[in-house]
Amino acid sequence: MATDPQIYGETVPPPLTETVRNPQIAGAAARLSERLDEVTRLMVERMIADVPVYRRLPPDGIADVEALAARNTRVLSAALQAGSHLDRDELRYVAEHVRERVRRGVSLEEMLHAYRVAINTFWEEAIAEGVTLGFSRDAALELARRTSELTDDLTTHAAETYVREVSRLRALSDQEARDLLELLLRGEVDAEALATHHAAPGLASAESLVVVVGRIARTDRSESDALETAAAEIRRALSTGHATPLVAVRTGVVVAVSPAEDGTPTAPRLAAVHDRLREGGTELFCGLSTPRPGLARVPAAFDQAALAVSRASLVLPVVSLAELPVVQNLLLGATGTMRALLTSMAEEIDLDGRETAAAMRTTLHAYADASMNLTRAADSLHVHPNTLRYRLGRIRERTGRDPADFNQLVDLICLLDLLEEARP
């Protein structure tokens, strides 16, 4: 179907050929044209009564609804009287009113509901004119058919225009968010400029900010679709009553700048996003920075979050550097050469295969979490203390490091964590 050439830069096809003019239908349409004000009033009254969002429109919004209803009624009546199809070029006015609905937050479903109510009113009034004129059964059916064709064409055109307008606005919004994020990461945005930017309302007033970096580890969809969906889910999860996070897709990752925790911790909200996306076939890993005061600290927070997401895994899909042990944070910052050396040391203790190494890691983490208390650690592992004592002895024999010694326990945990991270 043709679109508005002045707004969308598209070419309008030649008008459709006219149908044969039916004198009886033309007569009914002429009578309808004399009652356009009355028909328009009925259409608007029913839309306001049947569509809740229209009841909440301010006076200027209602005036716009009335203007569109009047214009639609004139166009439909003229086409019905002339026996012609709707001229797409003449429907350019629809785009202006559709933009107004989008601006006021009227959804496509709500707008189409209003169109159906209004169109049904027009159809009823057209049929009523046929009854008044004493149409035969065949003439009445032809009037109903022609009216339905015209109203369907008008509704379809409005729906397609709405979808194009939303897509256009979304593309503009996404680009503006990306541009603003780049300025933030370069430290080129001050609080005053951010306060007036609509991409992240309320963000400038936040006392401290956190940065989230999300990457797609696996997806059943295209990566671009998965990133866009992840961005929308993260935006929804981190939005608060007074602030909206700045969220943008940037070189294969989703980046969000959000006010620091406001009642609800950030990490659990991101974990909920991970769970929802996983149900849809997408595995999202997230890294979370520590809270940083002011816009000037956003670049450093981004570096933190990017480092944190590199530590995320199926076991821990959301990583916050603030919640990681100091030793693991130090490992994250190790050079490539040092990490390669430590990984080779870890591989040397994997004597009986990786499954056994994973079991060792579980045992040692439980022992450390229990502050090296054998009884409490055994309870958490659901084994007898003697069983745990035997396992720790086997680990000492295999690795040459004694878990009962604090320093050697830390060494073992770090090496086994590196081994887990290095798994394909």
Per DSSP, the total helix count is: 18
Structural class category: alpha+beta
Low-confidence segments? 1-18
DSSP E strands, number: 6
Between the first and last Cα atoms, what is the distance in angstroms? 51 Å
Write the layout of secondary structure elements.
Layout: H1 5-8, H2 23-33, H3 36-50, H4 52-55, H5 59-82, H6 93-103, H7 108-132, H8 137-185, H9 191-195, E1 208-219, H10 223-238, E2 246-250, E3 253-259, H11 266-279, E4 282-288, E5 292-293, H12 298-309, E6 318-320, H13 326-332, H14 336-348, H15 354-369, H16 374-381, H17 385-399, H18 406-422
Parallel strand pairs: 4-6
Antiparallel strand pairs: 1-3, 1-4, 1-5, 2-3
Give a description of the structure.
The protein has 424 residues and is α+β, with helices and mostly antiparallel strands. Helices cover 63% and strands 8% of the residues. It contains 18 helices and six strands. The protein has helices at 5-8, 23-33, 36-50, 52-55, 59-82, 93-103, 108-132, 137-185, 191-195, 223-238, 266-279, 298-309, 326-332, 336-348, 354-369, 374-381, 385-399, 406-422, and strands at 208-219, 246-250, 253-259, 282-288, 292-293, 318-320. 31% of the residues are buried. Residues 1-18 have low confidence and may be disordered.
Outline of the structure:
With 424 residues, this protein is α+β, with helices and mostly antiparallel strands.
What key phrases describe this protein's structure?
424 residues, alpha+beta, six-stranded mixed beta sheet, 18 helices, 6 strands, elongated, disordered N terminus
